[in-house]
Amino acid sequence: MVRTLDLNLVTEPSVLETVLKSNLEKDDIYRFMWQVVGNGSVFAPVSVWKHRRKMILPLFNQKILSTFFSIFLQNSETLCSVLSKFTDAGEFSIWRFINAYSFDATMETTIGVKIDALQNPDNTFLNAVNESQNCVAERIFHVWLHPNFIYKFHPSHERIKKCIKTMNDFVDNAIQNKREQILDKREGHEVKSILDHLISMNEIDHSMDDLELREEVLMLIIAATDTAAVSVGFTLKLLAKYPHVQDKVYEELQGVLGDTKRPLQREDLSKLDHLHRVIQESLRLYPSVPFIARKIEKDTLLHDGSILPAGSGFLASIWGTHRNPKYWGQDAECFDPDRFLPHRNQQSQSRCFLPFSFGPRNCIGYQYAMMSMKTTLATLLRQYKIVGEPESGPKPNIRVKWDIMMKAADGFKVALERR
Ligand code: HEM
Asked: Low-confidence residues of the chain, pLDDT below 70?
């Protein structure tokens, strides 16, 4: 008799691989995001997603991504100068600043609009992005808010409606302005945003209407902003807890850039191997997206002969897989960036590392995110020492909370000392 599985939370890489490759439909739990992003590709049904992914993916090629480096650098430098007022001033929550950095960089790369939320906090659009996600998280975690007929009487129903209107109006306006700019040939020499590329492609093949453009652009803004900011936040906290690892990152930066004050260049990033491993280890222990939910649409045969029955839900635990001692060893919970050294990173381990998911619906922003995070961290760490209570052992103790993304419960508190 064939065994059927009713899996709730999966941390077994071979099962994840099979399911994430062949079951592409998102679970209904994401329906509360549809209200915000419509058919934006992250949560769209497969029938819509296929076309959207085909349109967006080519824009994340190396040639286009490399033009974004100057945007990441400029905004990272602004972040450093805004943070200078916290130097030697004790612990503070750095979340608001890395969130604003990530938002500014994302808005410039995706729609070509300079916001400067870093220097002008309380930006209406950023507030709407944050607030709408809080509302969705509140709804997901409070089952009694799931039915529409109840939710429409809850105060967050009105709040989320306002946020959605703010975001949609802003993006519609940006699309309109961009079209006019392109028509009038008012384009300057500034970096072309994803929206520029999409509109230009569209003029040739008319493959996306304005609603599709808006949904996709808004989706990218939401997918990019918090994910990268959260990861920078956890990396900073880990570096504060483990000063010897931070010293090694700083030495590497000095080795690549020397004592000079010359600005970071894109070519430097590929030489920052230790920083790369630190980010990987941070993403392993604290993945920004700790769980992925899929809908099992057809009976799925697993390698051990058991079957995942059609109609069941599937929750892939990236968090659990990344801490599974069967693959990562008894020190799976410990912070050790050197586990990603080529000679230690076994083939079997690389299958257990999926912060950007796996298969046809994996993250298209992987290289974008790595470039943004490395630029921010390298720029910050050159100027500041990140300080915090050193951890007593190799197992970091960071309390986390989960809304739409996983974040540090203390708002990523750290202190800064000038180098
Ligand atoms: C550290 C940063 C990031 C992490 C950890 C991350 C993680 C993920 C994960 C786990 C998924 C897959 C969800 C699933 O399988 O259900 C995903 C999808 C996606 N991500 Fe990211 N992401 C990051 C940054 C970005 C950035 C910067 C962008 C865009 C600029 C982006 C755009 C997307 C898109 C469009 C999808 C949907 C892909 C599809 O369904 O075809 N992400 N991301």
From this structure: 1-8, 186-189, 347-349
CA–CA distance, 42 with 28 (Å, rounded to integer): 13
Q: Which atom of ligand 1 is nearest to the CA of 52?
A: 41
For the domain made up of 9-418, the CATH class stated in words is mainly alpha
pLDDT on residue 271: 97
Smallest CA separation from ligand 1 atom 16, residue? 292
Distance (Å) from CA 220 to ligand 1 centroid: 9
Are the C-beta atoms of residues 324 and 11 closer than 8 Å to each other?
yes
Which residue is closest in CA terms to ligand 1's atom 29? 365
Residues 6 or more apart in contact with residue 373 via CB below 8 angstroms: 228, 231, 232, 235, 279
Given ligand 1 and candidates 363, 372, 375, which is best to mutate, with the most ligand atoms within 8 Å of its CB? 363
* In the chain, domain spans: 9-418
Tokens standing for residue 384: 């500041």
Residue owning the nearest CA to atom 21 of ligand 1: 363
Task: Quote the CA–CA distance of 87 and 310 in Å, as a whole number.
Answer: 56
Q: Residue 160 carries which side chain, given as an amino acid letter? A: I
Residue located nearest, by CA, to atom 43 of ligand 1: 363
What distance in Å separates the CA atoms of residue 379 and residue 227, rounded to the nearest whole number?
19
What pLDDT, on a 0 to 100 scale, did the predictor assign at position 4?
45
Nearest CA to ligand 1 atom 31: 365
Query: What is the distance between the alpha carbons of residues 73 and 372, in angstroms, rounded to a whole number?
Result: 8
Q: What is the atom index within ligand 1 of the atom nearest the CA of 219? A: 35
Residue 159 near residue 96, CB atoms below 8 Å? no
CA–CA separation, 169 and 172 (whole Å): 5
* Strand bridging mode 9-10 / 384-387: unpaired
Residues 6+ apart with CB under 8 A from 63: none
Q: What is the rounded distance in angstroms from the CA atom of residue 55 to the CA atom of residue 50?
A: 9
Spacing, Cα 371 to ligand 1 middle (Å)? 14
Q: Of all atoms in ligand 1, which is nearest to the CA of residue 372?
A: 27
Q: For the chain, what is the radius of gyration of the CA atoms?
A: 22
